[in-house]
Amino acid sequence: MKTKKLVFLSVVAFVFIQCVSLSVFAQEQKTMKNADVMELVKTGLSESIIIAKIKSSQTEFDTSATALVKLKETGVSDTLMLTIIEAKPKTEEVKEPSKAETQKTADMKEAIGKRKVFLITDDEESRIEIVKKFTSKGFSFVDDRKAAELVFELSYSDGTTQSKAGILRGGNENQYKTKLGKLVVKLNRDSTDFLIYAREYDFARAASWASAFGVSATMPSLRDQVKYYFIDDFLKQMKKAGDKIK
After folding, report:
1. How far apart are CA 37 and CA 13, in angstroms?
2. pLDDT digits (tens, 9 = 90+) for 39-57
3. Domain endpoint, select from 86, 118, 142
4. Any idea what the CATH number is for the domain that residue 217 is in?
5. 44 is in which domain, residue-wise?
6. Secondary structure of the chain: what % helix, strand, coil (to 5)?
7. Threshold 0.85, pTM exceeds
8. DSSP letter for each residue of 158-224
9. 1: which of 11, 19, 90, 222 lies 20 to 30 Å off by Cα?
């Protein structure tokens, strides 16, 4: 009876030591290498535990012929070496912030009645067009962003487009430098941006319409995109939301 009790205590102690060894190792070492496996083998841990550790860890093993010979010489079994060879390096997953985490959205109805605007754009012609049109609709523009209720940001990307002269016939093709615009409107609330409107110029629709007549559409200037597309579309969306714009 006494012998059975001693055997039982010995087993418990052995398992405890294994668990502690594995726990300590896990805290001290993030990336497993050949030396780590050899160290675990020396402590007497079972193959199944070491394999489980390898599969759940980041790894950076040397599987060259010289390294495998050294593993064999230090008592690493063929089963463990196969696991080492098959192990793929694992890296910590970096969670990319979702769009919802980086850009809060708001309903356009929250912008109803708000008229103070802070404008961001590098294109002076577009700035003049935006200020002129929105001022005529009862909006005012401020120089201090903190004093604004809405933030308008007009950006653009550079590109080229082709134009072919003549309807339903061939013609000379020319390439032009173009600017593809994008207008973003946000609520300026407690210095945090709440997106209510974002639109790029829909060049694909215009190009599709033009191709039906045998011509290649030329991208309108950024100023014309603003004048005939962005301003009217934004005002239309605001009226649809219930704003009594002039």
Report:
1. 22
2. 888 888 888 888 888 888 8
3. 86
4. 3.30.160
5. 15-86
6. 45, 20, 30
7. no
8. EEEEEEE-SSSS---EEEEEEEEEEEEEEEEETTEEEEEEEEE--HHHHHHHHHTTT-BPPPPPHHH
9. 19
